[in-house]
Automatic annotation (TrEMBL):
One of its GO terms (molecular function) is UDP-glucose 4-epimerase activity. Its EC number is 5.1.3.2. Transmembrane segments: none annotated. Its cofactor is NAD(+). The keyword Ubl conjugation does not apply. It comes from Lunatimonas lonarensis. This is UDP-glucose 4-epimerase. GO terms for biological process: galactose metabolic process.
Length: 380
């Protein structure tokens, strides 16, 4: 389906043009938590679990721009309803949402009854590695349990297509770099990492058993950045566990200083290496994955790395941040943090060849967008 909204807009054109759906595509929406405002008619609907979260909200934008209607379900356990306002301003239109837990079968049934879904993207999960070690059952119940409920509901309603959020954490410290999809997974370092491995295994089993189920797991490397409008971005609750929110919070003065965990690793400057991928490029990978599934025969499973193919050290990230923000970052070198992988970056040839996906944003683009998002948050 060709949609009138333009795709792949750069940051400048976003500023210049407003996304306005033509009135012929509007319908009145009463079955979800939207106002009496109108919504897009005849657009294929994609359920986004965890759609109010960091990656889900950016994927909602990408889907609308590509002509789909995302339906969000989120319990707001790790997000804020203000995200929905951000989406509304970016899209000039509300995105319908259901407030609730994906483990709630009755809710999921209601949702699948009320909407004819083309497919599902399953983001909803808990993702704090440290917390998962302290309360593993919370992670197994939510991350594994919600996938099972979702798959059972999809089977009941004949919805076949699913894109699942996995993680490069399944590789641990890989024996080969860059990491290919065929690189063996390692024992998980945390219950969180283990839930991703278990979920991947469940998906393989399901595609082997249930005719017609078409599933892709995307193994994300390190998502960073924000929408260039600075209306949505990462919203870490409490002290951020990831580098970039810590960097931007230090830059804006919320944190006094950033500690770099170790500078004696076997890397160019001794600090850990990661593959940082702009969240909008990641969102685009979900779109490409969904569309790739469309013409696949029944019972299909595949998995793809989603990264840039480049690794950057922590000190390179700090230098790039200082360049784009014009701020000198207050940081110190501390001891290694237990459980940190020394270096990991993706081989992206498979996703590039099969899905036709390549990242469009640089590290600097992503850091600029993260910084502008942080500045916008500071004004709130
Ligand atoms: N951000 C990363 O660095 C990263 C890396 C690899 C994989 N992932 C995976 O990507 C997915 C999305 O990550 P994110 O960074 O957007 O996280 P996020 O916490 O910002 O988004 C997840 C959303 O899911 C919601 N949620 C959680 N459990 C739910 C439930 N049972 N029912 C309904 N809603 C629920 C939360 O409120 C939140 O809005 C997760 O599965 C995560 O494990 C993230």
């Amino acid at each position: 389906m060709v949609h009138p909204l333009s795709r792949g807009k750069d940051r400048d054109s976003f500023e210049k043009e407003k996304l306005t759906p033509p009135s012929s595509l509007l319908l009145s929406q009463t079955d979800t938590h939207t106002s009496s405002n109108s919504l897009y008619l005849k657009m294929e609907k994609i359920l986004i679990t965890g759609g109010a979260g960091y990656i889900g909200s950016h994927t909602a934008v990408t889907l609308v721009e590509a002509g789909y209607l995302p339906i969000i379900v989120d319990d707001f356990s790790n997000s804020d309803k203000s995200v929905l306002n951000g989406l509304k301003t970016i899209l000039n239109q509300e995105v319908p949402y259901y407030e609730g837990d994906c483990n709630d079968r009755a809710l999921m049934k209601r949702l699948f009854t009320e909407h004819s879904l083309k497919g599902v993207i399953h983001f909803a999960a808990n993702k704090a590695v440290g917390e998962s070690t302290a309360v593993p059952l919370k992670y197994y119940r939510n991350n594994v349990g919600s996938l099972v409920v979702l798959l059972e509901t999809m089977a009941e309603f004949g919805v076949t297509d699913l894109v699942f959020s996995s993680s490069c954490t399944v590789y641990g410290q890989p024996d080969e770099l860059p990491v290919k999809e065929t690189t063996p997974r390692k024992d998980a370092e945390s219950p969180y990492g283990n839930t991703k491995k278990i979920c991947e295994d469940i998906l393989v089993d399901v595609t082997k058993s249930a005719a017609g189920t078409r599933i892709i797991s995307l193994r994300y490397f390190n998502p960073i950045g924000a929408h260039p409008s600075a209306l949505i971005g990462e919203l870490p609750l409490g002290v951020p566990a990831n580098l970039i929110p810590f960097v931007t919070q230090t830059g804006v003065g919320i944190r006094e200083k950033l500690t770099v965990f170790g500078n004696d690793y076997d890397t160019p400057d001794g600090t850990c290496v990661r593959d940082y991928i702009h969240v909008l490029d990641l969102a685009d990978a979900h779109l490409k994955a969904l569309e790739y599934l469309t013409d696949k025969p029944g019972s299909f499973y595949d998995l793809f790395n989603v990264g840039t193919g480049n690794g950057n050290t922590v000190l390179e990230v700090i230098q790039a941040f200082e360049k784009v923000s014009g701020k000198a970052l207050n940081y110190q070198i501390g001891p290694r943090r237990p459980g940190d992988v020394e270096k990991v970056w993706a081989d992206t040839s498979k996703i590039s060849e099969k899905l036709g996906w390549t990242p469009k944003h640089s590290l600097e683009d992503a850091l600029r967008d993260s910084w502008n998002w942080q500045l916008a948050l500071a004004k709130k």
